[in-house]
Every structure is written in C-alpha cells, then in structure tokens.
Amino acid sequence: MNRLPAGLYQPGDSVVHRLDAAAKLLCLLLLLAAVVNTAAPAGYGVWVLLLALLIRLARIPPRTALASAAGLGWFFLLILLMNLCFYAPEQAWVSVWIFRPSSAGLLQGLRVAARVFLLLVMSNVLMVSTPPLALTGAFERLLSPLRFIGVPTELAAMILSVAIQFIPTLLEETDGIRKAQTARGARFDSPNLWEKGKAVLPLLAPVFVAAFQRADELSLAMEARGYRADIRRGRKKYPPFRACDWLALSLCAAAAVIFIIIR
C-alpha cells in the first residue's frame, strides 16, 4: 500500500486534534516566529525535542510528520551550499571565482536548513491534525478584522484553504506520473545530475495539466452546488476558546518570548 501524501488530514482523538483550529493556527505562527529568531545551536536541539513531543502528543507516526521534508534533501543541500559559498565572504577560507566558503557561511546554512525543516514539519502536523473545513473557518476567523477595510475575508480564507489542500493532491499526482515515467525508462535515481534533470523535465507539463484539470473540476463542482462568491452571507459565530486552547496559546507564546529574548 502506498503511504499517504504529506499534509493529508488523518482523523484522531489526540490533544492536538481536539484543539480549536484557530488556536492551532495561532500557535503555529508563534512557533514559527520563535524558530526564525533562534540562533544558538543549542536552541535547535531544544526545538528537536519539542518537535518530538508535539508529534507524540498528536499521535502521528514520525514518518507521516516528517513526510513534508523527507523528499527535499537536494533543496536542503542547496540552501547549505548557497550560504556556505556566499555568506560572510570577508571571512572566507579560500576564494575561487565567485565562491568564498567560510565557517560563518556553514553555520548560517545549517541554521537556515534547520529552520526550513522545522517549519515544514510543524506545518505538516497542523495539516494532518486539522480537518480542511475547520482550517478554512480558522483562516476566516483570523482574517475577519480585515473585513472592516473591505477585504473579502470569506473568499480569501477559501482560496488559502483550497491552495493548501491542493498540495498533497498535486504531490500524489506527481508521484503517479513519476512512476509512469519510470516504467517508460526515466532514471530519477541516476547519480548523474544531467540524466536526472532530463528525467524531471517531462514531469513539468503533465503536472501543470493535472493541476489545471483539478482546478477546473473543483470549480465545476462548486458551481453545481450553487456556490456564489458575490452573495453576502450571514456572519458565522465561532465558539470561544476553551481552557486547553488558551493553555496551548500561553505555552507557545512563552516559548516564542523565551527564544526571541535568548536568541
């Protein structure tokens, strides 16, 4: 059986599943702010422990939680090399044409790669533990103050939610196309970068066609169900945050403040 694509909602009864979707989204934003402001190497060790605790509380298999970052090894390597060769050139070990590797660049590359990894895994935990409709409601709830300046918050929330939910669908579509191309002789696992690049190029057109086809099917389905973006709807009432939601927000806010102060 194929594994589920990254970001696909999986029902559960964990502490993280039971939190309000808007509270989880706010917690994610606080944690992202804390991760971005973490600079000390020891801080990333603490984040790994906190992330393991979060995955444990959500009762999500580690393989599922890490799925969003598992296939991005080349991307992380590119981040590391770009920072290694171009960051802090005045402290370079050696200068070769435009490349000036330095220890400061190596540390910065490791920091950026660790930040991107943590952001991807945390976002994936949110997606896996939150139903799509609840996530749409959370976006609309948090964006609701913008309606006073004329921003169509309902439409913006729907667009954000659909875009996020399309990611696992397109990844699954891409995986199917890749397997079909592999059966026809494409070599995605070749150690030769030129051959791997030639194998990836034929994926682009089918993936774009599949994305537009999915979008067209979605628009037809919404139209068939009578969806109208120009109709003014009644304001939805959201339940207030519970004690567990406020506790989660308080813990995430405390973590953000501590990591921002300590850096």
Proportion of residues in extended strands: under 5%
Q: What is the overall pLDDT average?
A: 81
- Care to count the β-strands? 0
| Helical percentage | 55-70%
Report the C-alpha radius of gyration, rounded: 22 Å
- What sequence of helices (H) and strands (E) makes up the elements? HHHHHHHHHHH
Span between N and C termini? Answer: 44 Å
Biggest sheet layout: none
- Count of individual helical segments: 11
Shape: globular
Give the tally of structural domains.
2
Low-confidence stretches: none
Class from secondary-structure proportions: mainly alpha
Give a structural overview:
With 263 residues, the chain is mostly helical. It has 2 domains: 1-137 and 240-263, no CATH class; 153-228, no CATH class. It is 69% helix and 0% strand. It contains 11 helices and no strands. It has helices spanning 15-18, 21-36, 41-58, 62-65, 67-70, 73-86, 103-129, 132-143, 153-183, 193-224, 243-262. Helix 3 runs parallel beside helix 7 (103-129). The model has no long low-confidence stretch (mean pLDDT 81).
Task: List the keywords.
263 residues; 2 domains; 11 helices; 69% helix; globular
How are the elements arranged and paired?
Layout: H1 15-18, H2 21-36, H3 41-58, H4 62-65, H5 67-70, H6 73-86, H7 103-129, H8 132-143, H9 153-183, H10 193-224, H11 243-262
